[in-house]
Amino acid sequence: MEILILTVIFGLILIGVLSFPLFIRRILINTSQNSNPKLSINSEQKIEQKLDRIIELLEKSNSNS
What we know:
There is one protein chain. This protein is mainly alpha-helical. 94% of the residues lie in helices and 0% in strands. The protein is built from two helices and no strands. The relative contact order is 0.05. The model has no long low-confidence stretch (mean pLDDT 86).
C-alpha cells in the first residue's frame, strides 16, 4: 500500500516538473508573437484609419448641425 502511495506521489511530482517548463515555453512563445513589430504596425494603422473615419463622421455631423 505504501509503495502505491509513493508511486502516485512520485508520478504527480514528475508530471509537475515536466509540465512547468512546457508552460513557461508556451508563455514565452505567445509573448514573443504579441510583441512582433509587424503586427503592432498593422494594428496601429487600423486604429488610425478607424480614428480618421470617426473624425470624418463627427465633422460631417457638426457641419450638418
